[in-house]
Design goal:
Structural class of chain B: alpha/beta
Shape of chain A: elongated
Number of strands of chain A: 0
Helix content of chain A: over 70%
Number of domains of chain B: 2
CATH topology of the largest domain in chain B: Rossmann fold
Distance between the termini of chain A: 50 Å
Organism (chain A): Lentithecium fluviatile CBS 122367
Main location (chain A): mitochondrion
Order of helices and strands of chain B: HHHEEHHHEHEHEEHEHHHEE
Distance between the termini of chain B: 52 Å
Oligomer: heterodimer
Radius of gyration of chain A: 27 Å
CATH architecture of the largest domain in chain A: Orthogonal Bundle
GO molecular function (chain A): lipid binding
Order of helices and strands of chain A: HHHHHHHHHHH
Family (chain A): Belongs to the COQ9 family.
Number of helices of chain A: 11
CATH topology of the largest domain in chain A: Tetracycline Repressor, domain 2
Number of helices of chain B: 12
CATH class of the largest domain in chain B: Alpha Beta
Helix content of chain B: 40-55%
CATH class of the largest domain in chain A: Mainly Alpha
Pfam family, one (chain A): COQ9
Radius of gyration of chain B: 20 Å
């Protein structure tokens, strides 16, 4: 039967042509950023000045003076600080970005080891958040200055974006693989908890920041409770709604 | 066509009136204007060496011989020097003062003696190009003295126009800096700063001046030469408005109101017609940013900061170490 064969042939060629772009498309979709080296977040001249300036922060704070001293240390002039378009905020931002990127090197979870098994997703998030908070220790007496600068109207939005990137980094390093709406709620909850703990930390006078650790644990626990309650509530609402619909159906209503 | 030719005529009359510019080289001026007329037929051709002086450039919306532009600009500024400040206030509704204040505050000139050891060089060495009336220079010195407690920062004001410099010298007498060695005035062309040694300047500023230069690229390279490694080139200049609606209003204001104000207040319509035309001809933010990059500077961030929706913009460049 020639027509059948013809149609089969047609189908075959169609399938062949449609397969190739699909494969290429799938390959493109398999791009994972962690498999590729990322460009450095700062230009060489910027990072030379900023890395030298951050050493002056414990003494001079997040100020123009620290920037100028850093520029001098790096072999630049006072005036060279003009390479930083946002001035002091760039110094704050440098601290935030470098500490965020340092997380993946400072915190390691042995894969498959006993510890790795014992530490759940929540435990890993706690360890990572704590590690990031401890990275503030050298500048903790100046952190309120940094928070004040971040709260300036023009810097609020880049600061919040950096907070979101930190929350994402922590969940990513903890090994979170959620692909549902909890991807958003997890990051939002962690952002809120982290920023609250950081503000608490600026006033913490306890030895080795024991109070901060306790505060973080309490907030994470709150989050679990609230999350559990919301989960139970939605389950109850779902069950009730279904029952109501079924009752109506038993009465002969077409729903 | 008729209107344009009268506009060409008017600055030439002005030029003849000014003794200095007319006395300089009347012959060359004449020969150039014939060449200019030939040049008008062809549109702008990119040139390899822009300093040989035989090509054409734009003077507002007119096309003139390159050798002539300097004189024409000189005539414009000689005629506006005395009413410069009043006119700036009227044209920008006073906003130019805010721009200049912001420009200087952001550059934060001066070295605080509290954070520097005594062995190091004291103060900054600032070169203010096209700063004849001293607007930027006085602000720089005020900022250095009052904000950074720095009594050593020096400003050299350079301008090609002796009338503008005379205006600046006159105004300097009202400031505490006139007798001090911190302020000096030099008559110089920004494209040939022979009196300034290589790598000697911390900060090179040019506020509302670079638009009038015949060869902006040559001036940028000269800035690169005189700056120390790590030194900063900072430019405050009119630029392109971002918002279409605002641009319509701004264009209406600049092409109708400003020449009129010039005519009424300063009695000189043509100079202010040139002003708005030269603003229109100046490259956009990205274009000028690329010119700064081409001269070898590092550009901070995106390279510029818009002021008042892009009417003016601050461009900066840092000479790499």
């Amino acid at each position: 039967m020639p027509p059948v064969r013809l149609s089969n042939q047609l189908l075959g060629t169609l399938r062949a042509t449609s397969l190739r772009p699909a494969a290429a498309w799938r390959q493109r979709c398999n791009y994972h950023s962690h498999e590729h080296t990322q460009p450095p977040p700062f230009l060489p001249a910027e990072s030379a000045i900023l890395s030298a300036a951050i050493a002056h922060v414990p003494h001079y704070g997040f100020t123009v003076d620290a920037l100028k001293l850093g520029a001098r240390d790096a072999g630049y002039l006072d005036v060279s600080t003009n390479i930083l378009p946002r001035g002091v905020f760039d110094l704050v931002n440098y601290h935030l970005v470098t500490q965020r990127l340092a997380l993946k090197d400072t915190v390691q979870f042995p894969s498959g080891g006993e510890q790795g098994k014992r530490l759940g997703l929540g435990g890993k998030v706690r360890t990572l958040a704590l590690a990031r908070l401890r990275a503030n220790e050298p500048v903790i007496h100046r952190l309120q200055e940094a928070l004040a600068i971040m709260a300036q109207p023009s810097y609020v939005s880049p600061s919040l974006a950096e907070l979101a990137r930190l929350a994402d980094e922590i969940w990513y390093l903890a090994g979170d693989k959620s692909v549902d709406s909890s991807w958003y709620t997890k990051r939002a909850a962690l952002s809120a908890i982290y920023s609250a703990t950081e503000v608490f930390m600026t006033q913490d006078t306890s030895k080795d920041f024991a109070d901060t650790e306790q505060f973080l644990d309490a907030r994470l626990e709150d989050n679990m409770k609230v999350g559990g309650f919301l989960g139970a509530l939605s389950e109850w609402a779902d069950y009730t709604a279904h029952s109501a619909v079924n009752v109506l159906r038993s009465k002969g209503l077409r729903v | 066509m008729n209107a344009q030719s009268t506009r060409v005529l008017a600055p030439r009359q002005l030029l003849a009136a000014g003794k200095r510019s007319a006395g300089r080289a009347p012959q060359r001026c004449f020969s150039c204007s014939t060449r200019c007329r030939q040049g008008q037929q062809q549109t702008e051709i990119p040139r390899k060496d822009p300093r040989d002086g035989a090509g054409t450039t734009h003077f507002g919306f007119e096309t003139v011989a390159e050798a002539l532009k300097e004189q024409k600009v000189g005539a414009v500024f000689s005629s506006v020097a005395s009413s410069y400040d009043t006119m700036n206030d009227l044209m920008s509704l006073g906003i130019h003062r805010l721009w200049k204040d912001h420009f200087v505050r952001n550059l934060n000139p001066g070295r605080n003696p509290l954070t520097s050891s005594s062995s190091e060089q004291k103060g900054w060495n600032i070169l203010d190009i096209a700063g004849g009336t001293g607007d930027i220079a006085f602000r720089m010195l005020d900022h250095a003295s009052t904000i950074n407690n720095d009594a050593h920062t020096k400003v050299t004001v350079a301008d090609i126009n002796p009338d503008m410099l005379a205006e600046g010298r006159k105004r300097a007498l009202e400031t505490p800096y006139a007798p001090s060695p911190r302020l000096s005035f030099v008559e110089a062309n920004a494209e040939k700063l022979d009196m300034i040694p290589d790598s000697s300047i911390d900060l090179y500023t040019v506020a509302f001046g670079i638009r009038n230069f015949t060869h902006k690229d040559v001036a940028l390279r000269e800035a690169y030469r005189v700056l120390k490694p790590g030194g900063v080139f900072a430019c405050l200049e009119f630029s392109k408005v971002n918002n279409t609606l605002f641009e319509a209003v701004y264009k209406r204001w600049s092409f109708s109101a400003i020449p009129l104000i010039g005519q009424v207040v300063a009695g000189d319509r043509d100079s202010y017609q040139y002003l708005v035309e030269s603003i229109e001809r100046f490259p956009s933010q990205t274009g000028f940013r690329d010119m700064i990059k081409e001269a070898g500077f590092l550009v901070p961030g995106k390279g510029w900061e818009d002021l008042t929706g892009g009417i003016a913009a601050i461009h900066k460049g840092v000479k790499p170490t």
